[in-house]
Design goal:
279 residues; mainly alpha; single chain
Length: 279
């Protein structure tokens, strides 16, 4: 199948998923306003928006190979690589938080203030949705939040962005780094959050290289879920407002500087073990 036809199928499947998701939200939103019902709706939304298009695209593009094999979900690296991936994600978090604050503090030129206000309103709406999703007390709510906000999005988004989209770009763009970074940019842009554009791009790049270096989607899924779980864990112990990045001036604190430097050093050594070994 030609590259153009493959790309058409991928885009078509994504559009079908988004249309089905929109229909689902319209039909069920007013009937699922309870705390638990709303979280179930979010989980269904992730599955329909990303996992379903991934499976459909894989099925149509290469019919003679099982979809999960195409997505890289039948291979698994050694257990130590999963541990290293978790350590790597934890280690880069202080730097990611700093980059997130830099991104959020950026101010548009005067001629683009209207666009900036529009994007800030989208960010505010997304933050309110996140805080609503993080609501709940007790261990049961915490476990449900991990499933809905950490595990399900990690699995579903990695299936589409790395398992389908990145695989397509890597197969059709000569420079593999461009393919991975292009996927990361689309991954970040499709979330429609300006304040998280740069940190999510970096996250997407890390996840892309994890998948490319290992050949297993599970490694990027575990790393993605770790990133998401940090917000859920922090919200459970310290309140939902921790999902917002600190003010940029906070990073002048020596403790933040030490955390960023030490974290990057740990990530460097963990990354060498992850990316420089095949299994």
């Amino acid at each position: 199948m030609s590259a153009a036809k493959q790309l058409f199928i991928i885009i078509l499947c994504l559009c079908v998923g988004f249309l089905l998701n929109t229909a689902l939200v319209v039909l069920l939103y007013f009937f699922m306003q309870g705390e638990t019902s709303y979280k179930i709706l979010l989980m269904l939304s992730s599955i329909i928006s990303f996992a379903l298009p991934a499976l459909l695209a894989a099925k149509f593009i290469q019919k003679d190979e099982p979809a999960f094999r195409q997505l890289g979900m039948t291979e698994s690296p050694r257990f130590t690589k999963y541990l290293l991936a978790i350590v790597f994600m934890l280690a880069i978090m202080p730097a990611i938080e700093f980059i997130s604050s830099l991104n959020a503090s950026y101010s548009f030129p005067e001629s683009l203030k209207g666009l900036e206000e529009y994007l800030r309103n989208i960010d505010e709406s997304a933050m309110q949705s996140t805080m609503k999703a993080l609501a709940g007390n007790g261990v049961g709510a915490f476990i449900l939040n991990l499933i809905v906000l950490a595990i399900t999005p990690a699995v579903c988004e990695e299936m589409f962005f790395r398992g389908v989209l990145q695989k397509f770009f890597v197969g059709n763009i000569r420079n593999k780094h461009i393919a991975i970074l292009l996927t990361a940019f689309i991954f970040s842009a499709i979330h429609m959050q300006f304040s998280g554009l740069l940190p999510r791009f970096i996250l997407g790049a890390v996840l892309g290289y994890l998948f490319y270096s290992s050949g297993s989607l599970w490694l990027s899924i575990v790393a993605h879920a770790t990133n998401n779980a940090l917000v859920v864990i922090a919200a459970f112990f310290f309140g939902a407002e921790v999902s917002a990045s600190p003010d940029l001036s906070a990073y002048a604190n020596p403790w933040w500087i030490c955390a960023i430097v030490a974290g990057l050093a740990i990530a460097f050594f963990a990354g060498r073990k992850i990316f420089c070994t095949k299994k």
